[in-house]
Amino acid sequence: MKKREETELNPNPAASGGSPSAAPGVLILIGAYVISAAGLLWHLLASGRGAYSAVGALTMLLMAHAAFGLYLVIKHRDLVSGVKQILFISVVMVLMELTGIVTARIDAGFTPALLAVLLIAIMANEKAAMLAALPLAVTAGIVSATGGFSTSAPAASAFAVLISSLTATYALHMRKTRASTVVAAFLAGIAGVVTFTAAMLFSGELFTDYWASLLWLLGSCIVCGVLTVGLMPIFESIFDIASEARLNELMSNDNKLLKRLMTEAPGTYHHSLLTASLAEAAAESIGADALLTRTAAMFHDVGKLRCPACFKENQRGANMHDELDPYESAKRIIAHQQDGVTLLEKAKFPKDVIRIVGQHHGDSVMVYFYDKAVKQAKEGEKVDESLFRYPAKKPDTKEAAILLLADCCEAAVRSMNNPTNEEIGAKVREVITHKWDKRGSMLWDSPLSFVEIKKIEESFLETFSALRHERVEYPDLEEIDVR
Which tens digits make up the pLDDT trace of 95-146? Predict the structure, then answer.
């Protein structure tokens, strides 16, 4: 019944119930295994290992990659569906597996595995990073077994990679910044050293036989942390990934575009702050990317910098549109959406942010000026609706749809004079219903379900209630003798 209700309310079943194909991502994962397996096979043959040994090693690697791939397909289908992110994950893993084949020949503790885990955790997904440690640990263990080290080294290396990877991921969960990455790597190195030592002690190995491996392990982990900080901008640029660290940096008060909004278009900046609060909370309520949504909301009206006085929130006194015909007014207002995209592209913002900003009005009609044009039209004269329509796509992601609703609801509520909570609730429901049910609905192309839209509405009302809290009325200070 629930599924039927969602389908009836959304005429695009593919948008509400269907999910993007994971086939391209699965092929990329298979390709990653083939490349890693080929490198490992070359190493085994060069080390003089026989066919049985090679078959066993490649099977272990296959099982590790299969477990990782199945986890992503089942639990994080969005990562597998998004070719950009799964390609990044696969490239990083393959590079570190192939590099590990070389470094492990130097010493059992010398491993670059943590570099892949840190990059994936920061730029893609923490849980995916945890599972990525599995094939990396298997590779480290297999190569250690062919390096002429003690018989306990393979197990010790594999366990050390697993535990250090989990430690780094947990440490990054608290805070994902470039500085905290080095700290997480150091903690991972300590955990790896303890684990490696415990495994060797369990096997009865003398400390003098493996103390050098501990130094290699700790040193390689710290180096991985430093390299992660240096390589992040490169991978962000190559794969155009909106990582958490990158988004946080974009929202810093030092950002030039935000500074311009504060000084040149303060009304727009205030509107963006309120819209960002609404959008972020709503995204969290339905499990969408809250940080990406907030970042896009902060910059969604940056195009208004081209002509701040064209917009009511920045006007002080006269309204320039009183002197313009509705066609020219609509042209100037509509231009801000594409102007924003242009500004963000010049500033090299992530494409995920730019796409959301470019869709935050969809292909809606500038109703106010369209109505004004209709009223001013001569008898029998037909007004061309297309001249008042935004030339953009409807929102096709949850984040873009949330921003569209937050933007409209914030503007609608702000236009009300001292509304009560009940009046705000009625206005929010009116706006959302209009965007959902109206002919040519702005939400038909988005993957939002009816249930999710109700959660978004509830979140908006909670945020408005928090933003519009009441204060105690202060007495007349002239009547009170205080300093």
Answer: 999 999 988 888 888 999 999 999 999 888 888 999 999 999 999 999 988 8
476: in domain = no
Dihedral angle of Cα 222, 223, 224, 226, to the nearest 10 degrees = 90
Q: 227: domain CATH number?
A: 1.10.1760.20
Dihedrals φ, ψ of 365, to 5°?
A: -95, 140
Counting the structural domains of the chain, the total is: 2
Q: Over 70: is that where the pLDDT of 280 sits? A: yes
205 domain-assigned = yes
Residue (of 170, 153, 71, 173) closest to 111 by Cα position: 153
Residue 10 lies in a domain: no
Please give the residue range of the domain that contains residue 310: 246-467
Give the other-Cβ count within 10 Å of 74's Cβ. 10
The domain boundary, picked from 241, 258, 273, lies at 241
User: Exposed, middle or buried by CB within 10 Å (0-12, 13-18, 19+), for 429?
Assistant: middle
* Nearest of 74, 76, 82, 9 to residue 449 by alpha carbon: 9
CA atoms within 13 A on the CB side of 163: 20
pLDDT at residue 14 greater than cutoff 60: no
CB 104 within 8 A of CB 144: yes
pLDDT tens digits for range 171-188: 988 776 667 889 999 999
